[in-house]
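Appendix B, Record 12. Input sequence as logged:
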Amino acid sequence: MSEALQAWQSMCRKLERLGEATLTDECATADPTEMLAHLADQVVCWVGWYVFHADPARPFFHRQNDLVTQWGGPNGDNVYRHARIDPSRRYRIRGRMHSCEEFLLAIRVGFMHEPVHGTVQNRTASDLGIGPGDEFELLLGGDDGIPIPDGAVMVTIREYYFDWQSAEPAVMVIECLDDVGPAAPLRDDELASRIDDAARGIELSFTYWNRYLEDVIAARDPNRFAESHKGAKGVDIAQYAFCIWDLEPGQALLVDTDAPSARMWSLHLYNLGAFEHVDLVDRVTTLNHRQAVVDHDGRVRAVVSAEDPGVANWLDTGGRRRGLLTIRWFWPVGETAPPAPRTRVVPVAEARDAFGYEGLAAPPDRDAVMRARRTHLGWRFRV
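Logged structural output:
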């Protein structure tokens, strides 16, 4: 039997075990159906990355955290792209921003669910003088490119979209500038190694984020925000505040906070276990600093509930009793204190009046908002 076939059979057995885990205490806080669907999208994601994006001499971008593959609490305003690189080689990234307003380029030693992870270099489009509509060309490695430190294995680009326009998103390509010649036929042992890596990556991602959220739940009282914290290792531009919502039918979680003092900020709803967006296509489950209404007194008032509470900033749980609400902000401005959101659980019918603020903005046309959001997502994540 070939090594690759043995690796394939081993991966299939591992997937069977992970599928069974969705019905055990290992995934006790998550919905079993959502977790099984999550396992399926992890297979799509990590088989693609570890098997077909394994050669840093012949890189091309692998899109993740889109409408199919998600992991690790993706930002609803982002497109995420990853490509393999090698510190001994030189690369060029060329593209056009179109409607993309910003990007963050990060040189990384691994994904957060992997034993070795973190960011060792980063640049933003604005750092590089690149704005919406611009063409750009970036060099990585060598004497004249963005340095690729030892141990780096990939470049990640997070594209940012805030107005959610129905317009062309960014396009970009990466190429290795070294003369590498045509690829040799894939050897059996090479394929076996890639399949083993994929199986390990699927398991690590599936278990890591489920445990991560288990720890979040255990460390916090429901319906209250914990203190804010910084983002993943090496990216200290990002800060987050977490709240586990736990609501009975007919209840709503009120959120009243000062707007973060940062270049960009947003609110997001995620499911438990999988750490994926709650229904990004059919419900408003994210609001960023352009979409959310800031009231006349400078505060952001939002409601998390399954029923429309009649306020501008409604985050729709889709009927989920529990989940994770986050406030995230990037590139804080000055030395101001992080936001200190206040929360309260009330009946949905009383949510609007419960804020006790006469200047509270009226709700928009929900159907029109969803049509515009769906159209933008269709543009952003088109094939």
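The longest helix spans residues 188-218.
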